[in-house]
Specification:
Elements (H helix, E strand, L loop, with lengths): L5 E4 L2 H6 L3 E3 L2 H8 L3 E12 L2 H7 L22 E7 L15 E3 L2 E3 L8 E12 L10 H10 L5 H8 L18 E3 L7 E3 L2
Parallel strand pairs: 1-7
Antiparallel strand pairs: 1-2, 3-7, 4-7, 5-6, 8-9
């Protein structure tokens, strides 16, 4: 079985339409791209209300198991897949009330929440150029300076910052108190077991 040859591009749309090349391994992709690459999987294109509509729109890029449709995609071309995502409904201002309870057989049951509306989107896996990848994490001092500067909080910059992992200001110190022990308030140098 041959390996999947992923496209090399700066974003998912370019990976679908005009990739720089295709490679199965990161080392091969770095040679073709002329620099470092990272593996990425991103959604691309519009959303569709049903799986059938998405399969019709992306025919030739996905395996279509429906009878009477085209042949399946070659193993080295399987870098696309359909994903079902919850549709983001607009938020209503104010507090939302929980649904009223259901009374059945002398019991009070919580009413089931309605199933969220879903949409289908194409997900593309590709080798992303390192200069187009996420920026390197900033130090806590730089983050504090950014807060003092009061930069605008546009949605994209907030999403980028929230996508970064948290970093501690200093390494965590080893614990010197056990799970069932505590320090006496009047004598903090004494550790007593919790009863």
């Amino acid at each position: 079985m041959s390996a999947v040859r992923y496209p090399i591009a700066a974003n998912a749309t370019a990976a679908l339409n005009a990739p720089l090349g295709r490679a199965a391994r990161a080392s091969d992709a770095a040679v073709l791209a002329g620099g470092p690459v990272v593996f990425a999987t991103e959604a691309s294109g519009p959303s569709f209300p049903s799986r059938e509509a998405a399969l019709d729109a992306f025919s030739g890029r996905l395996d279509d198991e429906r009878p009477g449709h085209g042949p399946s995609v070659q193993p080295e071309d399987r870098f696309c897949e359909l994903r079902e995502l919850a549709e983001q409904a607009p938020r209503r201002p104010g507090k939302s009330l929980p649904p009223p309870p259901i009374y059945r057989d002398g019991q009070r049951w919580a009413a089931p929440l309605p199933r969220p509306a879903t949409v289908w989107r194409l997900s593309v896996s590709y080798w992303k150029l390192a200069e187009a990848a996420a920026p390197i994490l900033e130090s806590p001092e730089v983050t504090a300076a950014r807060k003092r500067a009061a930069l605008p909080h546009d949605p994209q910059s907030l999403r980028d910052r929230l996508g970064q992992p948290l970093r501690a200001l200093k390494p965590q110190q080893p614990l010197d108190v056990g799970l069932f022990e505590y320090r006496l308030p009047e004598a903090p140098h004494i550790i007593v077991p919790d009863e």
